[in-house]
Structures are given as structure tokens and as C-alpha cells.
Amino acid sequence: MKPDDRRQEIMDILMEAGSASVEDLSLRFSVSKMTIHRDLDDLEQAGLLRKVHGGASIQSSAQFESDFRYREKMAAEEKRQLASHAATLVEPGQIIIIDDGSTAGGLADHLATIRPLTVITNNLSVIVKLTAIPGIEVISLGGQYSRKFNGFFGIVTEETLSSLRADIAFLSSSAIQGAAAYHQDQEVVKTKRQMMRSASRSYLLVDHAKFGKPALHFLTGLDGFSAVITSDRIDAGHEAALSDAGISIIKV
After folding, report:
1. N or C: which end of the chain has fewer CB within 10 A?
2. Which residue has the higher pLDDT, 165 or 5?
3. What is the pTM of this model?
């Protein structure tokens, strides 16, 4: 196995288990403990994990937290509640957009009773779930597949979106600062912006922990959304800041 492939598999193991020992990794990949130590050193320098005595554990960071496998596990019940409420905004016959986010992606579990629908999405999990449901037409956005985000992005994705029109776009974002949404990846930002341009109205679904978090790239002001859908666990200070800025909030 090539070193890069082995290191990716080490991250896959940590993504599932949270930690792993050097001995276990050495046996799993049939390489020396020294080789595993070098792998862990390189991954730690990249900010992807933290070496501990005898092994490694996941390192909380923007790079790690953006992985869809991590996002699906975090605040899972809260995200399901937000997606369930968002589904009440959808009417049969509409055309909707669902982005790559794990929160917005949860809508796929609530659409079978709102048929017929047309769903435009770059989210591979949503595509897989909805293609098996009669009465839901899925328009899959092409582009370059990102294993990290489990979705499609890039020029092809954006050009396809620019030729489509939808009634509603449901988006997620990784960070909210003040009255603006941010994301750590610029390609994702460009796709989300085009989704908003392609829809008559847009909603942002974010769990309460996203407020006050940092991320590198400005996505959009929250006034670009018809409403921000979050949980009633939102901090009172963050809620007040949104209200003062005239942002519509739906608390679930």
C-alpha cells in the first residue's frame, strides 16, 4: 500500500473509532511500528490528529470537522428535528435544492410524504436515498466528487445550477459569526452561493453549536435567507444579535 493510501485509511479508522494504538495499526497494515509513527507524525503536522502515548486520537479542527462522517455524528438528533421542521415548508409539486450539508441533507428522510417533488442536489447521500422513491424526480448535479464532503463541486456543478430554477433552497453552513455565515472551503462556498441564486427563497439550517464558531471564508449575510432555522438551544446572546440585525429566526 502506498503511504498516502495508508494514511487515508488511518484517518478513516480514527473517524470511526476516535483513537487507535500504534500496535493495532502496525498489525492492521502489516508495517513496522516505526512506519506508523512516521505516518502519525505527518498527519499530526497536517493538523488532522493528535499523537498520544502509544497511539493517536482525532484532533478537533476545521479540517477534521468538515469531513461528512464527522458531521453526520455531531448533534444528530438536533439536526433531525431541524430537517423535520424544514420539510413542513415544502409543498407537493415544488422544486427544491438540498446542499451537501448533513443538516439540510436530513430533509431526504422527510420527503416521501410530500410527493410529487423535484429535488436538485449535489449531496451523494441525498441522491442515493431519493432515487428509490417513486414520485420524486432527482436532478443530480455533476461535477468533481469530494470524498471529504460526500458531494459534487466545481465548474460543472455551478454551471448546471445556473441553468436551473427552484422554489426553495435548503442550505447548511459550518459557522455563524454575527449576522453572517462562513465555511472553511471556498469551492463549497461558491456552490452554495449559486444554489441561493437559483432559488426563489432560501433557508439556512444550523444547529445551535455553529453560532460563534470561526471559519475561513465568508459565505453570505444571513439576511440573504428567508429565515434561519435553528434549535431553541441557541444562546440568548446570539439570538439577540440576529434579532437586532433583522434576521428572521425559526426556533425548533
Report:
1. N
2. 165
3. 0.78
